Every structure is written in structure tokens, then in C-alpha cells.
Amino acid sequence: MKRSFITACLISITLALSAQQKPSFIGLQAGPSFPVGKFQEKKLPDGSFTLIGFSTSLEGAWFFTSWMGVGGSAGMHFHPVDVRTLGYEKVVADPFMNDVYIRSDPYRSYTVYAGLFFQFPLVQRLSLTAKALRGIMFTQSPYQLYKADYEMIGEKWFEITSAGDFEGSFLAGAGLKYELKNCIGFSLNTEFTYNEMNFDFELSDGSVRTDKKVVAFVNVLLGIFIKI
After folding, report:
1. What pLDDT is recorded for position 21?
2. Where are the domains of the chain?
3. Sign of the C-alpha dihedral, residues 56, 60, 66, 69?
């Protein structure tokens, strides 16, 4: 009986130490999202005229060693459109347009990823993290309503409907984690993703126009996580 009790205690201690050495977690994070490259470019025809937006994601990982694990992430990312600059560029590009007023929804992107997570201790309770993930992104282009003033025609209303596309995607990230207690802590992460999307628009004559757009952004996210 005594030997069995000692054995059970040793097993419990071993499992506890193993759990501490393998920092598996689940967490929620949110923060600003900065469009980069042609996604934030404010020139026609390739630029998307996006502004700083918002990103949030839920992620988790199971670590099979003290520094490497596998996991996944699901996120939502929103980027508003700079309608003032877009309107100016539209007027410059069209010699018959005197002025234009634009109302626009944001670009909306939804992502699901899976891949490798890494964690390396720096000092007590503070660790360096990294991740390399692959998955899929669905991006929905904004619905836009135009009120244009044309030379010799006057005001004319028209719209650009929303389109969506699924494409393979990757996400790379690095950050810091700080443990407040044995099972909870805060994280600060930086993430980057780059994607090429194809948006199909049906024209008035029944034909389809495909716009190729780059969707690329950097997220800076503050999160909270629970060790599991």
C-alpha cells in the first residue's frame, strides 16, 4: 500500500512537470490590422485604397515537446476603404466626371489555419513565440454605392456589388507571452499574411470581369491565453 502511494505521487509529480514543460494553450487575441503592399495602395487600377482595420482570432496549440507544437487559428479581419482618395482618383481617371460621392463597406476576410507553433523561454514567465501556418482565406470585396456628376449628363447613381473568393493562404507570426499565474497569461503577437484573390463581377451585358487583388496585412494583437 505504501509503495503504491509513493508510486502514484511520483507519477502525479512527473505529469505535472511534463505539463509545465509543454506549454499547450488556447487563447483569444485582437488588435489593429495594417494593410500593406497593393492592398493599401491608393492608385488605380491595382490599389485597394484600404485603411488600418481590425483583426481578431481564436487560436490554440498542443505542444509535443517543450518548444514545438501543432495547432490552429481562426480569425476575422476588417479593413475600411479610403473613399475620399478613391473618389479623387476616379475623377482624375475619368475626363467626363466632375465629382463623385462614394459609400463603401469594408473589405472582410475570414481565415482558418493550421500548422506549427514554437515557444522559447527568455526569462522567468516571459517567452518568445513564433508560428508558421497554412490554410484558407475567404475575402469579400466591399459593396460600393456611387453618386457621380458627369459633364452634360448630370448626376447618376450606380453601384459595385460585392464579390468573394476562397484562396489558399499562409500566416507567419512572432511574439511574446507572459504568464501571470500557472494557467493564465497575456500575449503580444505580430502576424503577416499575403494572398492574391480573384473577384468575379457580372457586368450589365452578362459577361464576367475578374479583378485580381492582393490582400496583405500585418496584425498587431494583444491576447489572453489559458494553458491546457
Report:
1. 64
2. 2-227
3. negative
Per residue in 31-69, pLDDT tens? 999 999 999 999 998 999 999 999 999 999 999 999 999
CATH topology of domain 2-227: Porin (2.40.160)
Max Cα–Cα distance, the chain, nearest Å: 100
Assess contact for 20 and 66: CB atoms under 8 A.
no
Residue with cell 489572453: 224
Per-residue model confidence as pLDDT tens digits over 136-191: 999 999 999 999 999 888 899 999 999 999 999 999 999 999 998 778 999 999 99
Q: Please give the full DSSP string across the chain, using - where no structure is assigned.
A: -HHHHHHHHHHHHHHHHHHHHS--EEEEEEEEEEE-GGGT--STTT---B--EEEEEEEEEEESSSSEEEEEEEEEEEE-B-HHHHHHHHHHH-TTEEEEEEEEPPEEEEEEEEEEEEEEEEETTEEEEEEEEEEEEEEEPPPEEEEEEETTTEEEEEEE---EEEEEEEEEEEEEEEESSSSEEEEEEEEEEEEEEEEEEE-TTS-EEEEEEEEEEEEEEEEEEEE-
Is residue 202 within 8 A of residue 208, CB to CB? The reply is: yes
Grid coordinates belonging to 3: 509503495
